From TrEMBL:
InterPro entries: PyrdxlP-dep_Trfase (IPR015424), PyrdxlP-dep_Trfase_major (IPR015421), PyrdxlP-dep_Trfase_small (IPR015422), Ser_HO-MeTrfase (IPR001085), Ser_HO-MeTrfase-like (IPR049943), SHMT-like_dom (IPR039429). It comes from Actinoplanes digitatis. Pfam families: SHMT (PF00464). One of its GO terms (molecular function) is pyridoxal phosphate binding. (6S)-5,6,7,8-tetrahydrofolate binds at L131, G135, H136, L137. This is Serine hydroxymethyltransferase. Belongs to the SHMT family. The record marks H238 as: Plays an important role in substrate specificity. The modification N6-(pyridoxal phosphate)lysine is found at K239. SUPFAM superfamilies: PLP-dependent transferases (SSF53383). One of its GO terms (cellular component) is cytosol.
């Protein structure tokens, strides 16, 4: 974007004004941008956006209040905005092969709650994956709204760390849920959506598929699509879609199925659920950024990126296993590698902190049969969205795994959260991270001015 571009002009004015009028905020925002460019992010639940997504989100669309939907707004001045939202809808439908898309959810949490609270009554039974097994808070955890307002039953994993479909079917027969939720937040294997639908149909339940973590794999055909199996599919847009913070609700062949209580079709029902039932005005600048991210996701470069997501995850899983780590389920089919640290006598918290000290960002995560608190845990969740975006392939990913191993093998745990790490190991790891980041820069994020201290 050149300075003669009106968007560039506005943004440059804003950036200059921020730097002079509020140097404190400007400094921390710059620090954060530079931290991202100069560290190795192996966090599975985020991804760095393309600069064109960032700019769409920073656009003047933020200034518009537009309750309602394209062509049916409660405010004037929405003609241009309608075009933006329609573009996002069309692109979401095309990317996922869906018949219906709602692009207004502020997050996947909101999308899930909108679906649950429209199709269920308070107290109805919901069958979802347990949090400890890799499910999400919104799938029925007692710590969340879903577990409090519905009767939530949880399914788990078998001894191999895989979803136990026979258990899901047995729990469905026993509890007769009105809704089954599939999809996960920390599960490294493929999910059999067709099988989930058969189980849902056998007890007359709705099926909600939440593909927040694997949306990119689904779009590019690297994970079977739930769109025509689930009644409704939800996803966030900021994990594997490399988009803004936000959510989507999608539907395929069930879009025209009857809604409960004679309220039209499922698609019409969900449409009313987001607005006016569950949300107010949409965040139109985020919707513009969703449109941009979905356009990128339809292109050939995205396919390459997602190919690298899978290849780098496999390479990391293999390397870590070869180096003696317990990789949950023995490997990965997606972007997630779960490492069980219990045999190493180290908590996830210690591992997370020691790695961060070395500029490697991962997150602690519970592993199957974990009894430690969620802020301590016995495992690590590694994800490859970010390194794939940096253009890393198998070899660089193997080096990332070696670095993780180098740090973990050198940590001396002194309890659940205290540890000692030799300074020489820290310095060596930081130097190698800095080199990896220089060799594989985040596209568009300047690194040349970053003082990467070894
Ligand atoms: C991250 C995640 C969510 C929540 O997404 P937000 O947009 O952050 O609310 C919901 N479901 C699953 C499976 C997730 O992994």
């Amino acid at each position: 974007m050149s300075i003669t571009d009106p968007m560039g002009e506005l943004l440059t004015t804003g950036a200059n004004e921020l730097a002079s009028a509020d140097p404190r905020l400007h400094r921390v925002l710059v620090n954060e941008q530079e931290r991202q460019a100069a560290t190795l992010s192996l966090v599975a639940s985020c991804s760095p956006v393309d600069p064109s997504v960032l700019v769409s989100q920073a656009s003047a669309a933020v200034n518009v209040t537009a309750e309602g939907y394209p062509g049916r707004r409660y405010h004037a001045g929405c003609e241009v905005i309608d075009g933006i939202e329609q573009l996002a809808i069309d692109r979401a439908k095309a990317a996922f092969g869906a018949r219906y898309a709602n692009v207004q959810p502020h997050s996947a949490t909101t999308a899930n709650y909108a679906v649950l609270s429209s199709l269920l009554e308070p107290g109805d039974t919901l069958l979802g994956m347990e949090l400890e097994s890799g499910g999400h808070l919104t799938h029925g955890s007692p710590a969340a709204y879903a577990g409090r307002y519905f009767t939530a039953i949880g399914y788990g994993l078998d001894d191999a760390g895989l979803i136990d479909y026979d258990e899901v079917a047995a729990l469905a027969r026993e509890h007769r849920p009105k809704m089954i939720v599939c999809g996960a937040t920390a599960y490294p294997r493929l999910i059999d959506f067709a099988r989930f639908r058969r189980i849902a149909d056998s007890v007359g339940a709705y099926l909600l598929a939440d593909i927040s973590h694997t949306a990119g794999l689904v779009i590019t055909g690297r994970h079977p699509s739930p769109i025509d199996h689930a009644h409704l599919t939800t996803t966030c847009t900021h994990k594997q879609l490399y988009g803004p913070r936000g959510g989507l609700i999608l539907s395929g062949r069930d879009a025209d199925s009857p809604a409960p209580r004679g309220k039209g079709t499922l698609a019409q029902f969900v449409q009313r659920t987001i607005f006016p039932y569950f949300q107010g005005a949409p965040v139109l600048n985020a919707i513009a950024a969703k449109a941009r991210a979905l356009d990128i996701a339809a292109g050939p470069e995205f396919d390459d990126t997602v190919g690298r997501i899978v290849a780098t995850a496999r390479s990391m899983a293999d390397t870590l296993a070869e180096l003696g780590h317990d990789v949950v389920s023995g490997g990965t089919d997606n972007h997630i590698v779960l490492v069980d640290l219990s045999r190493w006598g180290m908590t996830g918290l210690v591992a997370e902190q020691a790695l961060e000290e070395c500029h490697i960002v991962v997150n602690k995560n519970r592993v199957p049969r974990d009894t430690t608190p969620a802020l301590v845990t016995s495992g690590l969740r590694i994800g490859t969205n970010s390194i794939a975006r940096r253009g890393m392939g198998d070899e660089a990913a193997a080096e990332c795994a070696e670095l993780v191993d180098l740090v973990l093998a050198s940590v001396q745990p002194l309890g659940d959260r205290e540890y000692r790490l030799p300074g020489a190991v820290r310095d060596l790891a930081r130097e190698r991270v800095a080199r990896l980041c220089r060799e594989h820069p985040l596209p568009g994020y300047p690194l040349d001015r970053v003082a990467v201290t070894a």
